[in-house]
Structure formats: structure tokens, C-alpha cells
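pasting for ref
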Amino acid sequence: MARATSTYVCQSCGAQSRQFFGRCPSCGSWNALVEQAAPAADNRRRRPVAAAADAAMPPQPRRSEPIQAVGERPLQRLQSGYGELDRVLGGGLVPGSLVLLGGDPGIGKSTLLLQSAQAMAQRHSVLYVSAEESAQQVKLRWRRLAEQQGTGAGEGPGLQLLSETDLELVLQELEALRPAVAVIDSIQALHDGELGSAPGSVAQVRECAAALARIAKRQDTALLLVGHVTKEGMLAGPKVLEHLVDAVLTFEGDRFASHRLLRAVKNRFGATHELGVFEMRGQGLAEVLNPSELFLGSDEPSAGTATIVACEGTRPLVVDLQALVSTTSYASPRRTATGIGTNRLHQILAVLEKHLGLPLSRFDCYLAVAGGLEVEEPAADLGVAAAVVASYRDLTLPPGTVLIGELGLGGQLRPVSQLEQRLQEAARLGFRRAVVPRGSGLSRLAAGLDLQLLEAGGVAEALVQALGVNPAQGD
């Protein structure tokens, strides 16, 4: 019998070592190695070696088949009951798929999935497995959501509740019930009794997720897994967990704001980087059907404010940018950006100083995106430049103006993607002027939208058209 040995497993990346280290040799995490008992490796040969006579025979498949012969089934997605969640998933839940939902504690992951399970239970059988809360706690939250949303507590006979942490009992319930949808809250709280490690460890998360994936694929059960996050904001557990599932969703939001953002980081059945917007209210999470109004400020114009149209996946969002430029009191000016990459801000400030002659290196610069939204795409460059220049010159952009364009290092404006959808969203919200890169070819569309299209080839020309004055003159 093989003698049991002791190994040290990293709780961050899953690397194994025979010796303890304060820092993981693979990922560099400190104090992440945990001792675990593991049986010694069995070096006996388990696979028979083919004889020489068999090697001379022509190759024949045993279980594989030509891809053309694989049967096709129509893909029928399951509607989650919330259009914002279906948008991020690519149209709904695919039977047999695994979806991992991660987010900070208290952000609303359990509330979102319980509301969705309650809606799906009207049409399908749903199993809600609570590994962190008791059955009474889940029922209290379910009853509160049902009463405040106007649905009776007796509705939804297709929703089954199981409060259990033992993986084997959860698998038995899935095999007996064979639900169309199952929710596991959370994967880090499940425990496989055959493993000696504690719940939430790398080995436990990996094996529990693999066992759930096998049964979900076998009986076409759409599985929703709740995942914890680390203090750095990354999904807890081994990276193989994200590779194993079909979709990875992140639930984000500012703890001081009411809105929540649902993003798709990975999706095998739809587009990634889609965005769903929810608002936390007294009756639970509510969909925000017009999120552009959430990220727009007041109608009263102010110096240093510019409006852009950002795209999150296929959804255009009209967002306000606010900039503040003030004389620095230090040898090195302070640059702070919220919602925009700081390196991007440094690059735009360098372009403005080089091509417009503005001495921004002697000024502090603060930039913020209204509503706490993260804008990563370069189409916001022109809006950032306009907000900075407007604050520096103490100017106000004309009401009803949006700015769209990527700023090159040479001061030129580059075209951006999905410009047609951006202009349509701006016109729908009542904007009447749009500054865009030259050569868009959308003059006829803008005329039909009653939108004045101002095309520019460089940042100086664009700012003159947006502000009405030459920003390079005045020093």
C-alpha cells in the first residue's frame, strides 16, 4: 500500500511543493502554501503497451466519430426572467452550461440569483442550493422579495430549496430532481468528504466544480455558480475554475451608489464585455432600462464637463466626464483619474501640451467619470481632452454636444467603432451636436436624426468646433 505523504499546495494558483516556502515559487503569493496529506504516487504501469502486430494494423477509431456525423439539436435558451441578465448571457441560459458569478460581499449576488430563480420557477423546475445560509434565512429573503414585488408567497411551485454543504448529497439531489436550472451558492462552501483539505481550498473548489460540471453536461442542467473574490478583486480559487465554466460574470458596483453593473468576462455562447445595469432598491434588484440617464449629470452646464458616448459591448452609454485643472503647489503635479486609466490621462495631457501649447505640466489635473462607470475604450479620448481644456480655460461646452473620437499621439483624430449606434443613442437622448473624426460617412444618417455632425481631423480643430474658441490662444 502506498504510504501517505505531505505536500504543500498554494491556495492562489494550485501549485504543489514538497517543501514549505513563505512565498509561492509559481505565482509569488505570500503565505499561500497550506499543508495537505496526499498519497504517494503509484509508478506502476496502468496502460497496456500495444503489441507489434497490433501496431501494423490500420488505425480505427474506438469512440470518436467524424464531426459531420455528430447530431445537431436546436439551441433553446432558458429565459432568466430579467432582460439585463439575458443580455449579458447572450440571450439566456444554455441547457447544460455552467455560469460563474463573482462579486464583492454584499453586492447582491444571492439576491440577483434568487430573484431570477423565482422568475424561472414559473416555467421550469429550479433547484436552489444554499451552502452558506440556512433554509429559514433563504425563505425569509424569498418571502420579502415576493411580497415587495407583488407576487404571492405561494407562487413558484417549481422552486426547490436545499441547504447543504456536502457535495455528495447535492449531487444525489440533482440526479433525483433533474432540474432545468440549478443555483449553487456558493462553490467555495461545498465540501467533498473524500478530500482531506478544508472547504474553499484549491483542491476542494476544483473537484467540486468538476463533479458539478459532469452532472450538468450529462442531464442538460443549466448551472449557476456563485464565486467569492479575493481582496484584490479577483475570483477566488484556482484559475482552472474559470477555464472549466462556460461563462464568467462579474457583479460590480460602488458601495455608496445604488446601481450595480453586470459584465461578461468570458462567454462561450455570446459576446463578451456586455453590460447589464441594475439598481438596488427596497424590493430587491430592479433593471435599469435606460442606463444613459444614470450616468448623465444635471442639465445645468458647468466648466470642465464634457459628454461622451461609450460602448459596453453592443450597448451605447452616454456618460459625463468631469475635469478639474488647478495650479500645483508641489514640484511634481498631481494627476488623479477615476473611471479612466491614469496612463491614458497622462498621454492625453502630453498631446495637449505638445500640439496646443498648454502648460499643463505645471497644473494638477483631476478627472472623474460620472456614476462610477469604468470607461476603458479609446473613444473617450476627445471627451477627456475637451473636459481638461474647458476646465483650464474656464469654459463651458454648448449644451447638447457629445464628443466621440480617439486621440493619436500626433494630435490627429482616429475613427472609432460602432459610431452609428453612438449617434443614434445621442440623438435619442436629445443631443443636437456631435464632434466626430473626419471621414465617418454618416452625414445622411445625422441629418435624419436631426443631429449636427461636426467632423474634424485633429484635436485642435475638434476643440474649436466644440468650444467655439481656439484653446491655444489666450496665454
